[in-house]
Amino acid sequence: MDTIRELLVSDVGAEKLGRRDISDAEAEQVLRNESVTARNPSAGGEVERRLLIGRTDGGRVLTLVIERTVEPSTWLVVTGWTATERERKLLGD
């Protein structure tokens, strides 16, 4: 089980989130609120990525692609979107 204590959002990540009307603050809320992690089925190569699926303070359910950093409990937000029905089921919706 991965321990995620902190999410970092780079300028590139913030731009990708912004294209989907997701703010940096909402991405950080997903970690603080009810959330689950799942293996990223499209991840390849040596980079360790996961899906973080959870709720914002406003009740939106988002899926974030996160990437492990050198600090094991700190992860980088790569991109994100409104969770699909299948992803929402992982959260228990």
Q: What best-fitting shape do the alpha-carbon axes yield?
A: globular
> Major β-sheet, in short?
5 strands, mixed
Share of residues in helices:
25-40%
Order of helices and strands: EHHEEEEH
Count of spatially separate domains: 1
Question: What is the mean pLDDT?
Answer: 91
Number of helices: 3
Distance between the termini: 22 Å
Strand order, sheet with most strands: 1-5-4-3-2
Structural class: alpha+beta
Per DSSP E runs of 2 or more residues, the count of β-strands stands at 5
Secondary structure elements and their pairing?
Blueprint: E1 6-9, H1 11-19, H2 24-32, E2 35-39, E3 49-55, E4 61-68, E5 74-82, H3 85-91
Parallel strand pairs: 1-5
Antiparallel strand pairs: 2-3, 3-4, 4-5
Structure notes:
There is one protein chain. By secondary structure, the protein is α+β, with helices and mostly antiparallel strands. The protein has one domain (6-91). Helix content is 27%, strand content 35%. Strands 1-5-4-3-2 form a 5-stranded mixed β-sheet. β3 and β4 form a beta hairpin.
